[in-house]
Amino acid sequence: MGSIDRQGSTPQLLNRLRMRQIALILAIREHRTLRGAAAHLGLSQPAATKMLHELEDALNIRLFQRVGRGLQLNDAGERVTAYFEDLRGSMEALNRELGELRQGSAGRLAVGSIMAASPGRLTQALLDMKRDHPLLSIEVAVDTSDRLLAQLREGLIEVMVGRITDEHLDEYVFRPIDDESLVIVVALGHPLLAQGERQPRLSLANLRDFGWVLQPLGSPMRTLIDQEFRTLGLALPRGLIETGSMLTTINLVRGSSMLAVLPTAVASAYVEHEMLGVLSYRLRRPLEAYGSIVHRNRPLSAIALQFQALLHRG
User: Could you give the CA distance from residue 53 to residue 41 in angstroms, rounded to a whole number?
Assistant: First the structure.
């Protein structure tokens, strides 16, 4: 391989890179073998090998190390792949927007949101968008922040409403919207509701022996709950049901003696309609503020910019 000096400037690097090479390294990461990546892209293995060597030569650095019969990304490969995934997400967003323009439609908006934002900011922003653009097609994904970030990186959504961790601050732009408090909910008639009336300060140890429905590992809400148990020196309850679906969580709680943690904004509507009860136990920490999140290096469409502005209008 040549020296860094020979490699030259960014324009020269762009001239040497090909989209097929980018597709190859992403396929190798997914399939773990050059043979599998080549088959996925419809290439012969010798052609894929040559293309990989040309890519490493263009970047002037090795990207993989062999592990048995497979390939494993080294540190340089991990960084390069992260940038290439962002590029693929940008191409996905561009392709979607061009497709709408070719069809002569009023446009399409793809957004994602955590459940806590749905009853207020998200719903109002969506209604305002439909008022201004009646023919606009809108797709809304509701999930946990970690899963939505993956969709944002892949270009499947343009704007996300959720939380961001420090490790992603360089990749995305976060604008806070609101804080989020949490409550523990149970079915009406649950014995802990009566106990809470007699003993206003329920302890987490009192609650541990009941079944729990929690969000999956990696979500901010689950992380906070795990920290609550650890702070008090308690192990997590056994036999957890883990789901990112708020609707599934609510249905499970209503039909059993299980407990779950919900955002106050979500739980309030069910409490008001006498569908759930809230325990008197208060978690020691609230969740960090949620807000709008967009990709730092990916331009937003005019429609997405308007939607983001509406989210922050309240």
Answer: 17
